[in-house]
Amino acid sequence: QVVNYAPFTLLPSAVPSALFEQAYAVQQDFNLLMDAISQNQEFLEHTLASTIKVDDFTARLFRIHMQVLEEGLAQSVFLGINRSDYMFDCGVDGTPALKQIEINTIAASFGGLTSRTAAVHGRVLKVLGKSEEASRLLPNNPSKELALGIAKAWELYGSQSAVVMFLVEEVQRNIFDQRCVENELWNRNIRVIRKRFRDVFEKGSLDDAKRLYMDGQEVAVVYYREGYVPKNYDQQNWEARLLLERSRAVKCPDIATQLAGTKKVQQELSQPGTLERLLPGRAEAVARIRATFAGLYSLDLGEEGDKIAATAIADPDRFVLKPQREGGGNNLYGEELRQVLKKIRDSPERTSYILMDKIKPQPAMNYLLRAHSPLQVSECISELGIFGVYVRQGKEMVMNKAAGHLLRTKAIEHADGGVAAGVAVLDTPYLV
Ligand code: ADP
Ligand code: MG
């Protein structure tokens, strides 16, 4: 009903090409890792044990995961679409290093809109008389690559008449991003329907073979663009989620893969030996993954947790305090971090958080263009995301790719938040 342009930078931002290539080179490893975690019930249970005692949202997801496993998985084709996000940490000698912020395993967005930003920035550079620079901007089309993954999963599901269902928000603020992916599917003669949890609750059903039907239409793939924050769920929506997870349809992601994307799992991955156990015989992949890790610390009750909590209270600017939440605006920094951590330092509540070293990128100047906002030059930092897509049938990986990139840029005064949170804007990397 109301259309605004998506926010973007006036100019592309400089990104060190070596770090850009490093981020692409590790993406298939991260795909393998997320997929391995999703199949490792023991690891998920052990890693999330303390978290689910205090975090009701993670606990509910975990219960659905357990219930589906106990019933026996009806799903045999698996589709992962993720986005691994990085910042360029500026070391003491000024050399930037690629450090992962997090990996998003559900509803990783902006693959659609960002497929258009290189053209926007190319045009701006030409207007400025910089056509040579414009010609150096890399082509980037995640929407097509993500759609190819969805199409592959649809094909392996094996029913010509079945549809792909985008599970969308109640209030749709990012529909055009999703439409870019959707259009690619229609171009391949795959039908797409858009439904909310509420529609699934009212009209969804399973047959004897746990095939999922919506309004009598068989659904081959459920692509979640919703369902990652507590406010997405009321009792009916939880029931709808359970119905979807029990079904044979390919869920992108299945609930185990959603759990693999939690901050607690990210922290556990940084523990010595964990990556080696999850990816046996893949020493090179393990090394590539580990090279992107910043310091991550558990706040589980015990000596180690006490020690790091005390360090963070004494020196909060070194850290970010993160709860098990997605979508931006949930993390704590600086004085607020100190206050909250002081309050919960001796309570089990602290185990619902992790601590992470704060990444400190070198700022650069740019203009951030946002509808209805005044234009001003800002000191900015950027976050690079690489999309990953993979498809597994039974035990066999049939697709594993890096699927394009996203650069988001924000003014330095905002510690937290992405594009959807109204803080960051779309950008294009200019490799240097
Ligand atoms: P969410 O799941 O809410 O997106 P993130 O871990 O991505 O959580 O954090 C949100 C934002 O906070 C990031 O986009 C980034 O700008 C900032 N941020 C997160 N972790 C760090 C960190 N370790 N150092 C600096 N900034 C961070
Ligand atoms: Mg994030």
Automatic annotation (TrEMBL):
GO MF: ATP binding; glutathione binding; glutathione synthase activity; metal ion binding
Binding locations of substrate: 83, 106-109, 172-174, 178, 225-228, 408, 419-420
EC number annotated for this UniProt entry: 6.3.2.3
Cofactor note: Binds 1 Mg(2+) ion per subunit.
Pathway per the UniProt entry: Sulfur metabolism; glutathione biosynthesis; glutathione from L-cysteine and L-glutamate: step 2/2
Binding positions (Mg(2+)): 102, 104, 326
Cofactor(s), names only, from the UniProt record: Mg(2+)
Keyword Nucleus attributed: no
Binding-site residues, ATP: 102, 263, 322-331, 333, 356-359, 383, 410, 416
Catalytic activity: gamma-L-glutamyl-(2S)-2-aminobutanoate + glycine + ATP = ophthalmate + ADP + phosphate + H(+); gamma-L-glutamyl-L-cysteine + glycine + ATP = glutathione + ADP + phosphate + H(+)
Top-level division of the source organism's lineage: Eukaryota
Domain called Glutathione synthase substrate-binding: residue spans: 162-260
Keyword ATP-binding annotated: yes
GO cellular component terms attached to this protein's record: cytosol
Keyword field: ATP-binding, Glutathione biosynthesis, Ligase, Magnesium, Metal-binding, Nucleotide-binding
Pfam name, any one: GSH_synthase
Annotated family: Belongs to the eukaryotic GSH synthase family.
Subunit structure: Homodimer.
Function, in words: Catalyzes the production of glutathione from gamma-glutamylcysteine and glycine in an ATP-dependent manner. Glutathione (gamma-glutamylcysteinylglycine, GSH) is the most abundant intracellular thiol in living aerobic cells and is required for numerous processes including the protection of cells against oxidative damage, amino acid transport, the detoxification of foreign compounds, the maintenance of protein sulfhydryl groups in a reduced state and acts as a cofactor for a number of enzymes. Participates in ophthalmate biosynthesis in hepatocytes.
Name of the protein: Glutathione synthetase
Lineage, highest ranks first: Eukaryota, Metazoa, Chordata, Craniata, Vertebrata
